[in-house]
Amino acid sequence: MSVKSVEQLLNPQSIAVIGASNQPNRPGNAVMRNLLQGQFDGPIMPVTPHYKSVNGVLAYRSIDELPIVPDLAIICTRATRVPAIISQLGRKGTRNAIVIAAGLDNLFTAQGTNLQEQMLAIAKEWGVRILGPDSLGIIIPALGLNASYAHINALPGKIAVVSQSSAVCVTLLDWARRRRIGFSQFISLGEGIDIDFDEILDYLGRDSQTSAILLYIDAIHNGRAFMSAARAASFNKPILVIKAGIYAESSALTSRLPPEKIGNDAVYDAAFRRAGMLRVGDLRELLAAVETLANGKPIYSEQLVIIANGNGPCAMAVDALLQRGGRLATLDESVVAQLQPLIHGGGRATNPINLLGDASPETYQKVIQVLLQSNSIENILIMQAPSALTPGEIYADAIINTYKNYNGRKPNIFANWMGEDAAQNARLRFADANIASFRTPEGAVGAFMHMVQYRRNQKLLSETPESISDKVPYQPHTAQTIIAKALDENRNQLTSIEALALLKDYGIKTQNESIDMPGSQRKGAYPLRVQVQIDPVFGPVILLGEAASHWSIRRNAVVALPPLNMALARYMVIQALAEGKIRERELYVPLDMPSLCLFLTQISQIVIDHQAVHNLLINPVLAAGEDIHVLDVSIDISAEKNSCPLAIRPYPKELEETFVLRDQRKILLRPIRPEDELNLQVFDNSQSKEDRYKRYFAELPQFSHEQMARLAQIDYAREMAFIAVANDDQQEKILGVVRVQIDPDNTQAEFAMAVRSELKGIGLGGRLLQKMIDYCRAQGTPTLIGCTMLENSGMANLARKLGFSVRFNREDGLIDMSLNLHETDNTHP
């Protein structure tokens, strides 16, 4: 990851166009034209030996002749010249290049060298970062920068688009221009062989000009890097994804990747859900989502009120809502009573509200005023079929003015002005007023349900799991011995007895146990299939479904990425039931959710503990109430290290350690876990008002569940928090916390620390901070920094004792602390 490289790419101060041309049908001409027609405030330098000037701008015959080092080079030449050009740019000092040409991986030198590999090797040697090949370029409206060969420019806005398809880019641009929707960034990744989604997401997740992100994905190259960046970004802003290649046949025909590297689409689905992103099915849904993101705001309720001038539109909207799992709002009786006098006989004052075909703009206006004043309605869909009495734009103006002039809390509103020519002007009015509008009832409801699903995904991300650590052993001895013995014997599969013994070591019931399931209970048990297999993109995945003779992932299973906890396992089971992958039956013993979730979590721990396990198949596992019983299992192993590790780094249990304080109290230092949220809330509330002020630099109210969940559910691949835990009457109690945020380039980490107010001076703070120093040093982070208020002299003294340089910044009222981690290790206090 390198956010600095992306910042330079997306904020250049000077640009060279290599292969600039005066021929109108060449990319080098289109790129020059777009650059010059924008408001880019920096030198634009065409490089070509064929013209003295390009589009009236003095041209340079070679890169060496350029008067300054360009921040960005756009390479518009044929593919065979690209490696040599990268070498010339590297010698010149340019560090970012966009490659327009495609097909370098199919071209070879006379010596048989692949041109794409040659280009990457040269770029790495000179430190040049590459966007592409097969990139359309980039458009950044806020900079007046159109460094692309697109046929149209982008309007300024707050949505970022990142796409591997140039065709999707130009389609979105064309559609958005007509809808008057703007963008903060428009980035064509092309093949993404160097700069890829993960680095762009890291940048956009921090970009204050971007409020939402749209991704078009053909394939992911690095599953762990993508997941880490996507999870971080999706905590701050919505990410919508459209991915091509749903079916294996289409992926095989269209993907640039070899078949063995093409990931399964169902696994992509699981990855998107786990990262809190929202996948849309096709380009039409994506366009509807763009409309909503551009003009909508976050929703806080999933209930919808529908208003229309006819029963047909009402019925179509309600059908679409119910089909997608949405809910109609129930209007308060007082609201219905106010609406009834406004609606003629034959209409309807309950939801969906039917104003009838002769409803005037004034009727719409009065009805909306009642709904706005109720303060109990969160989302309104306003529909209008063309009227012969009044033009559609007059209705639109009435609604827009009513909404804008209302001074109270405003709900989300969406518009569906049906028809084409008759509705066009109205839709433009809504676009100018930043109100999302749609051509069809289904499109409007679909866009609303995208927001609902995103809200659900975010709630799932912050759900606090049940703690079951004592029921899921970590690297139990018998399991390790079984796998080691098989590998020593050069076997790639465990025997049935070995496989069952391994499961038993993780607390899973097997057929060899004496408390076997009675035959009568076995008849009423659900026969399930659980499988672990390796995906070439996202590594080990867990599959769950019913046992079947003909079984496929897409048809029979739901997929989840380990590691699982009880909350994630519960979501997996609920998904299986909702999608019919597990069908509830009347005569079967009902499924016991906690027991099945515990079983899935135990399987997840097997995956985490043993990289040698490349395939695990339990078929069937019988689930009857609390009894989860394995009848048959096969486990394939390999001594070869899995080239595709877990996409999400699991809880690093190896970092746990015990420590004795000066008062002889024994404590456990360990990384924080999601299930620590409630104890973390208790710890935060236990701090004195003075300590909270020193920690947060302000008087803050208690954190919400969502805020506290974000502090407990960290990504161990890029951040760390250690807690000091003591057992108080068999109940864990957090005594102190230290956490760091490491920048994506791993050049610097910033720490923050807090200790219970009554426990200062007994060595706890020093041990916590030393633990974090040791961790950051092991990660290769060069510098650890922190700051505290001038009043917190105790923190400054502790930092100085541990080797930090301490500087008092009296102008800002802060103490700055910095430690060079490349120096000799400090002695534990």
Give me the secondary-structure topology.
Layout: H1 3-10, E1 15-18, H2 27-37, E2 44-47, E3 53-54, E4 57-58, E5 72-75, H3 82-92, E6 96-99, H4 115-126, E7 129-131, E8 137-140, E9 145-148, E10 155-163, H5 166-179, E11 182-188, H6 197-206, E12 212-217, H7 223-234, E13 239-243, H8 248-254, H9 265-274, E14 278-279, H10 283-295, E15 303-308, H11 311-323, E16 327-328, H12 333-339, E17 353-354, H13 361-374, E18 379-384, H14 392-405, E19 412-417, H15 421-432, E20 436-438, H16 441-461, H17 477-488, H18 496-505, E21 509-510, H19 519-523, E22 526-535, E23 539-546, H20 553-556, E24 557-560, H21 566-578, H22 593-609, E25 613-624, E26 627-630, E27 633-637, E28 657-660, E29 666-671, H23 677-686, H24 689-696, H25 705-712, E30 719-728, E31 731-742, E32 748-755, H26 764-778, E33 783-789, H27 793-801, E34 805-809, E35 814-820
Parallel strand pairs: 1-2, 1-5, 5-6, 6-7, 10-11, 10-12, 12-13, 13-14, 15-16, 15-17, 15-18, 18-19, 19-20, 21-26, 32-33
Antiparallel strand pairs: 3-4, 8-9, 8-11, 22-23, 22-25, 23-24, 25-26, 25-27, 28-29, 29-30, 30-31, 31-32, 33-35, 34-35
Helix pairs in contact: 3-4, 5-10, 6-7, 10-16, 11-16, 13-14, 14-15, 17-18, 21-22, 23-25
